[in-house]
Fold this sequence. Notes:
By secondary structure, the protein is α/β, with parallel strands linked by helices. It has a single domain (4-250), classed as TIM Barrel (Alpha-Beta Barrel), CATH 3.20.20.70. 43% of the residues lie in helices and 15% in strands. An eight-stranded parallel beta barrel has the order 1-2-3-4-5-6-7-8, surrounded by six helices. Helix 1 (16-33) runs parallel beside helix 2. Bound molecules: 1,3-dihydroxyacetonephosphate. Residues 9, 98, 170, 175-176, 214-217, 235-239 line the site of 1,3-dihydroxyacetonephosphate.
Amino acid sequence: MxxxxxxxxxxxxxxxxxxxxLAAEVAALVKAEVPADVQVIMAPPALYLxxxxxxxxxxxxxxxxxxxxxxxxxxxxxxxISAAMLASAGISYVIIGxxxxxxxxxxxxxxxxxxxxxxxxxxxxxxxxxxxxxETREGADYLAFVAQQLTESLFHLSADDFAKVVIAYEPIxxxxxxxxxxxxxxQEMHAYLRGHLAKQYGQAAADACSILYGGSCNAKNAQExxxxxxxxxxxxxxxxxxxxxxxTIAKSF
Length: 253
Ligand code: 13P
């Protein structure tokens, strides 16, 4: 049985007071309403990780995640936060390779491989993002393009390390656009990626890997997306900023 996961990527949103309030609201609702077999994750701006993590105390299926980490352990990298630092602060998840990091901060597949290594070496669970642009989607090779992202950033991992990775498929054309992938489009990609993972790590390891969908996933469409055989949850942007919507999504399995 694969783990069901709903993660909220808050991106660069919320003041400190708003973040605290949202985390408290989500925590209360997860405790009261979300089944124990659904892992819920909040990924706030790093500045609020401590406060958000504090709000998760006592809620077994709720955790905090960073949105990024640096691949080096420490050093002269002004403005950066390392995986080692996140681990030292008790954080257990980190989003790696979000398309916004790839696009605006020029993160390459090779650099993301190093970040995945850093996360795993420090006991963090990487939420590894992949996905294609609209231009790529309109061509013939969009499945292979996304598979290649996995090959270049994950396939150096041992089977033991690979087993700790969560994957999030986020078509760039669906992020923040209100354009969701249809359940057929999501299922096609997720099944393809699982097949790709099976070639490298074997069917059992591929079957055990949670693959989340992200991109305009909301309280209305989550149920249809999560009903797909190979969709194991969601990485939620905009809708994770409203506690009630986020919780509706977490209850959509
Ligand atoms: P939206 O849900 O706002 O489209 O964002 C998706 C996303 O990028 C989550 O990481």
